[in-house]
Please model this.
Amino acid sequence: MAEAKEELFGFELVSGDKKRDLRSPVPISIDDGTELPVGGRIGYTYEGYEKARTEHQLIAQYREISFYPEADAAIDDIVNEAFVVEHHRAPVSLRLDYLNVDDRIKESLRKEFQNVLGLLKFQKKSYDTFRNWYVDGRLFYQLIVDGNAPNDGIQEIRPIDALKIRRVVKPVYDKDQRTGASILQDVDEHFEFSPDGDMNAAVKLSKDSVAFCASGLVDRNKGMIIGHLDKAIKPFNNLRSMEDALIVYRIARAPERRIFYVDVGQLPKIKAEQYLRDMQNRFRNKIDYDPTSGNIRDSRRFMSILEDFWLPRREGSKGTEIDTLPGGQNLGELDDVQYFKNKLYESLNVPQTRINGGDASFQIGRATDITRDELKFGKFVQRLKKQFSEIFNEIMRVQCSLKGICTANEYDEMRQYITYDFVEDTHFQELKELELLQDRMNMLQTVTDYVGKYYSLEWVRKTVLGQSEEDIARMDSQIMDEIAKGQINTEEDQNDLFGG
Model:
């Protein structure tokens, strides 16, 4: 039988909805955008490029990669493409066009979403928040509620370092009396937090008191969530090793080395070595230049060139001789380094023309001039923003349940119809919108004669003009204000504006 649940720190949402008794031995999938089934390994390790790592060690490696100049430039390009901060509007807005609920509920959702953005300080911290989520591959927030007045909603949202918390998901099974099969009864999901990162002395937090957003990527062989930088681990290590090897090779092979073949005759080994050392002392520099202070210094204890070779020769072979070993001949070749740098950019899904080898000037032209790599990159950023939006859904689910707008289960049913619009300011986006607007105006002229016969006015405004419900309400309000001010005077003008 299922064991009694352990008392957790934090709050839990209690829903009045009665769940249907759907019995199955198959674990359910967690609705966090990863579709990771419960019952995976606890305390798992990840076999990566160098050695087995735990989840927290993997996050630490992601952060190390993010500080590398090439990786940092690529990540910065992704974050800049995803988020735009403007002083007159929020970087993200709630869109409820496809949500079939009462307008009063929609207005409450929009109001609470603005409160959530304020608690997150999103106008100020949107860039850092999205970057931390992209690098770590996960995002954690503690939702703090006043226990004496839970109906007031979330009072504070505190970010949690991903290295100090972990999610634990354990399925609870029960034996079926008839077949003896293990039937999934419940899922024990909670979080373990430790201020110093020691999970052996961690505090257990309830599921509802922590908002969690995953990267959307899963290593199904290991049963764990990974970050977007996971596929860049090997190219990063290869690039760093190649650059280190290049530096060592340049330093070792840059100077021309001299080889001194010293004739030691029939001297015994000990006396031959002593004679060789006397020859080295004779050829030492007496005076050299100090580039730090600009002074001339006496450096008798240093050889003129440390890379010189001194080799003894016995009687009967050639006499004393000085030869020169040439330096490296291909010190200027960087093809190997460039190859692994391109692999790093490719692993991060960033077009190489943005950072490496492309035209530095900004090409201004029509939207049809965009390259295929830029189009793929734009779609990749759109997927990132869609997955990142799950953090808003997690917080809104708790907020709406506490405020009595809807239950947690009701919000889970509505969340698939809730979308988020992010502000964009790229020149290509402006060109594309202008071209779309021109095409919409041309199409509007074509379908105007069929409004009221084959098409409704609402369909034209939503489909042809692409207006959302908020846009329609705002436009109607502005039109009425203009009518009241006399800017629209004739009934003919009004009919033209409304498609009548």
Notes: The longest strand covers residues 182-193. The two ends are 68 Å apart (CA to CA).
